[in-house]
Each structure stands twice: as C-alpha cells, then as structure tokens.
C-alpha cells in the first residue's frame, strides 16, 4: 500500500471541502457541513495549544456558509450537540477557538449556550 504524503492528503481534503461547499451552495447549512468544516479542530478542542491552519480555514468556511441568523442558530445547535456528544472536548478551549483563529463567526462555542439567543 502506498503512503500518502501530507501534502497530498491536505490537497485531497481541500478538494473535498471545496466540492462539499459547492454542493451546499444556496442551501441552508446542516450539521454534516458544520462537522466537516470543524473536523480538523478536534485535536485542539481536546488538547488545547494552537489550532492548526486547517482548523482555522474550516472556521472561516463555516463563517462564510452561515451568513444568516438562522444559519448561525443551526450551526450553534450542531456545535453544541457535538460538544456534548464527543468525550474530551474542553469547553474553555472551544470558547477560545474563534479568537485563536482570528475569526468572529457570531456563534459562541460552548456546551451550554442558548442557541436561540444568537443574532
């Protein structure tokens, strides 16, 4: 079996992300899309440190995909559900993620946020 280089793996993930973005263009955001954007953030959300560039790119993609209040509320509920389902996600790291990536998406990252209060 051939080893896939990091560059090849990164390019493949980028292509998949772009294709998924095209597939969702013009439609309301959904949890699988939110999860895809932030999958690269899971190591940071569990261990802290600094998020990877791929994680921050996903966060930027999420921001672009959730421009409307209703989209941000859906994204909030998706994030809250994942945070409460996957063991080991640290709520403090989650709250710090947007600032660490320099992205304000208008969705608080927290296990206890009231997603109906999102503007």
UniProtKB/TrEMBL annotation:
Q: What does this protein do?
A: Plant non-specific lipid-transfer proteins transfer phospholipids as well as galactolipids across membranes. May play a role in wax or cutin deposition in the cell walls of expanding epidermal cells and certain secretory tissues.
Cell membrane as a keyword of this entry, yes or no, is: no
Task: Give me any GO biological process, just one.
Answer: lipid transport
InterPro entries, A to Z = Bifun_inhib/LTP/seed_sf, Bifunc_inhib/LTP/seed_store, Plant_nsLTP
* Source organism phylogeny: Eukaryota, Viridiplantae, Streptophyta, Embryophyta, Tracheophyta
Provide this UniProt record's keywords sorted from A to Z. Answer: Lipid-binding, Signal, Transport
State the protein's name: Non-specific lipid-transfer protein
For this UniProt entry, the molecular function terms from Gene Ontology, in alphabetical order, are: lipid binding
Q: Where is the signal peptide?
A: 1-28
Is Signal tagged as a keyword?
A: yes
Homology family: Belongs to the plant LTP family.
Domain Bifunctional inhibitor/plant lipid transfer protein/seed storage helical intervals = 31-115
């Amino acid at each position: 079996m051939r080893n896939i280089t990091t560059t090849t793996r990164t390019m493949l993930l980028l292509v998949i992300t772009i294709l998924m973005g095209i597939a969702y263009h013009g439609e309301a955001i959904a949890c699988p899309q939110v999860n895809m954007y932030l999958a690269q953030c899971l190591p940071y959300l569990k261990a802290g440190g600094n998020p990877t560039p791929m994680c921050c790119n996903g966060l930027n993609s999420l921001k672009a995909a959730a421009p409307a209040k209703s989209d941000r509320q859906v994204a909030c509920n998706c994030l809250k559900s994942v945070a409460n389902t996957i063991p080991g996600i640290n709520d403090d790291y989650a709250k710090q993620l947007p600032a660490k990536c320099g992205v304000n998406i208008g969705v608080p990252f927290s296990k206890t946020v009231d997603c109906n209060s999102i503007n």
